[in-house]
Predict the structure.
Amino acid sequence: MSALAEAFRRHWPEYLMEAAGLAAFMISACFFAVLLEHPASPVHGVVADPAARRALGGLAMGLTAVAIIYSPWGRQSGAHLNPGVTLGFLRLGWIPRADAAFYAAFQVAGAIAGVLLAWAVLGARLSHPATRFAVTMPGTAGPSAALAAEAAISFVLMTAVLHVSGSRYARWTGVVAGALVALYIAVEAPLSGMSMNPARSFASALVAGDWTALWIYFLAPPLGMLLAATVYARRRSRGCAKLVHAADKRCIFCEERARRPGTASPRRIVILGGGFGGIFTARRLQQLLGGKGDYEIVLVSKENYFVFQPMLPEVISGTIGLTDLVSPIRQLVPGAEIHVRDVESIDPERRTVTTAPGFLPHAHTLPYDHLVLALGTVTDFRGLRGLPEHALPFKNLQDALDLRNHVIRALDEAAIERHDERLRRQLLTFVVAGGGFSGVEVVAELNDFVREVARSYPSLDANEIRVVLLHSGERILPEVSADLAVFAQGILIRRGIDIRFKTHL
């Protein structure tokens, strides 16, 4: 099978996405050309100043470009939307020749289809001399000035795309590109007509039958973008032929790079921990390194889900459902390799991490180039006799569910206890240790839950229920100001919570 046939077989969805993107861009260009320039348009009558209409048109097309770039299809194909951009990436070696050829061909086909679709909808309004299928034409300064201007703005656009996409601000590449499109239409269009895109100019010229100065738009934009790529190539930095590298979409360019013989293996970053630290580290690294193609991220977590712990107390009372509190890690960090395992050991000399066995009785050894420790903390009962045997920890999702179930069982037992009055009082007494953020949230939710559920037990009197908060300090919530702490304390007391200060376990 030839290289072209193999490329088409594997990557035809991305080619169609490029065609659809440029078709959408041309439909938008034709629509706004009619809206702003047709004499019968109400906008044309209201906005009489040509410069103001250009500014509106620039804003509309800039937003169109941004929307296409960040659309699901644009994030997968890379949203070149321009044979000149594709040629620039080809110059850098970031896109195979077969893919570049198909991208350019489908971009032209998509642009033509977009103009034809717009014509079918807008009819004579698009073919009117004032709109003329949004044909790009040189300004009054002549073809030479248009040629120079087109080359210059294309050079600046490609330079901006390359530098921003290769930086920590990579996610803003599409916004920068859209902003430049808007600026050029508003300011530069009187010089060259503002094309920067051979496919866009060819499609309008073909349908309009007007080939005047088309050579300018075939020559200047590719030259400007090739020059920008040549200058950028001196940095010898690696990158990806996408304006925005989306971690949740397949990347045909990174795939092809990995298939090349002699390609160095990507460096591996192993992150231990699936809490706030681990998840947000992985997400940030994907933003910074996703387009480089030379790093891979591995995340090890004992659970396959991420829990928003600040809302964990609401699980006790059922105020928040479990599905509202839990997010699958694979959706939060798409593209990362996830290991749902406990960590058994770390070998800094061999640069490996060993994880506990899973279904099969064998451990996994993960080599790493960089290691991130984000394992968080565990509840420590050392030095507190009796707590491991009698206290319920409150650290993770399972702890919240265990506490809820324990409270319900205590109420069930108290409701039928008739033999031992002391035991009944114990079953209806709930003690929370610690008056910080977590303790106050837990005791508030626990108190509301117990008193609400107790209404379902005819044999229980609400006055029998005791909810006690123990705190070693002089006031609760030492993390906030005294006024707020006193205010919160008053609310808890009014709700029937007994607060004991300067009390240690």
Summary: The mean pLDDT is 89. Residues 3-37 form the longest helix (35 residues). Residues 239 and 292 are 5 Å apart (CA to CA).
